[in-house]
Each structure stands twice: as structure tokens, then as C-alpha cells.
Design goal:
The chain has seven helices and five strands. The protein is of the alpha+beta class.
């Protein structure tokens, strides 16, 4: 890909910003026409190297923000686990709200993270202690937060909620006094999260609610 794409872009389009990771890349163009022209040129270039662009993933997207009133058919794209699209945001240090073209964890990445937690089958492992479960979850959570929490960290809240609900299901199976008692089990975990926030990474961030 260095020869087929990187060197070619540097030689033929030195004025266009671009980035690539493995076989996934994007190029920033100034106009839609420029983007469509580049797409055709890139298809020809890759064909010369016996490669081709993905037929469905390759598309032109408009980086729309609050300053643009026109409508465009495609105003979002996924790249390296992030979804880039128009989002509401707040200027740092102020209460000023605005609409910017901002990245956040993508729905597909969120689905994959939930599946990773599901594959641990923690809800049924009543032989484990909460410390054991924390040792399984914390490395995953720490890595996800370090990567996906860099931009729009609030987008990870549904993941934290899923972890808390997994813990709730585990508590209700492990302790007989909480069987079929969702509210009591939820209150137990909320108290534990407040007094032992050090147990889990997301509790340390203050995400201690939403157990039920």
C-alpha cells in the first residue's frame, strides 16, 4: 500500500491531506467534484497495482457542521472504529453549544465491545468473586477508554451501562438474597460502587448508576 497509495498520493496530490492505516484510508478534498475525480483516479491507480477499492465501503462523504445549511446525501463515515458525523458539542471552558463534525465510537465498535464482554459469560460464573470479575474486565475497559474515550467520551456510556447490567445479573445469580430482586441488587451495587470505586475502571470515572 505504500507504493500503491502513499507514494502515489504524495507524488500526484501533494496538496490533499490523507491518512491510512493498513488498507483503510481517507482523503480530504475541497469540493465534491474534486473528491469524485480523485475516486476515479484512485480506482485506476489501484487497478495498475492489481488492487481494487471496496465496492460498498468506498464513498464520498461531506464533513458537515453547523456553518453549512445545504443538505448532502452522505454526511458520515466510519474510520478505525470511530464514526465521524455532525454532533452537538460544547466549547471547552464555556457553555457555548455548536454543531461540529466530530468523531465518537462507532456503533459497530460498540457492538463488538459488548460481544467481547458477552463472550466472557460472566453472568453465569457465580464461582468468581467481584475482584475476579474486575481482573477480567479492567484490562478491556482500560484499553477501550484509552482509545475510544479520547473523543466524545460520553459515547461510551452505553458500554458502561452494559457492564453494570452484566454485574447486576451476576449478583442476582450469585447471592440468593437477591434472586428475583432487581431493585435490591441494584441498590447493593450502587452502594458498592460508591464505597469501592477502585474495583472497576469505569466506577473510578464516576459511572456508578444505571444498574437496573
Amino acid at each position: 500500500m505504500h507504493y500503491a497509495f502513499d507514494a502515489w498520493m504524495a507524488r500526484t496530490h501533494p496538496d490533499l491531506p490523507w491518512c491510512r492505516y493498513a488498507d483503510d484510508g481517507l482523503v480530504h478534498c475541497r469540493t465534491e467534484q474534486e473528491a469524485e475525480t480523485l475516486k476515479v483516479e484512485l480506482q485506476a491507480r489501484l487497478a495498475e497495482c492489481h488492487l481494487e477499492m471496496h465496492p460498498t465501503k468506498t464513498r464520498v462523504a461531506y464533513c458537515k457542521n453547523g456553518n453549512v445549511k445545504s443538505n448532502y446525501p452522505n454526511v458520515q463515515f466510519d474510520f478505525l472504529g470511530y464514526c465521524f458525523r455532525p454532533r452537538g458539542a460544547q466549547r471547552r471552558g464555556t457553555k457555548i453549544r455548536f454543531c461540529g463534525f466530530i468523531p465518537a465510537v462507532s456503533p459497530s465498535a460498540m457492538k463488538a465491545m459488548r460481544q467481547t464482554i458477552r463472550d466472557l459469560k460472566l453472568r453465569c460464573q457465580t464461582q468468581l468473586s467481584l475482584q475476579d470479575i474486575a481482573r477480567k474486565l479492567n484490562p478491556l475497559l482500560r484499553g477501550w477508554i484509552a482509545y475510544y474515550g479520547r473523543y466524545t467520551p460520553s459515547a461510551l456510556y452505553p458500554l458502561y451501562r452494559y457492564v453494570n447490567q452484566t454485574l447486576l445479573a451476576w449478583v442476582m445469580r450469585k447471592f440468593k438474597r437477591f434472586k428475583h430482586r432487581t431493585i435490591a441488587a441494584s441498590q447493593f451495587l450502587q452502594r458498592l460502587a460508591q464505597t469501592r470505586a477502585d474495583l472497576l475502571v469505569h466506577w473510578q470515572l464516576g459511572i456508578i448508576g444505571a444498574f437496573a
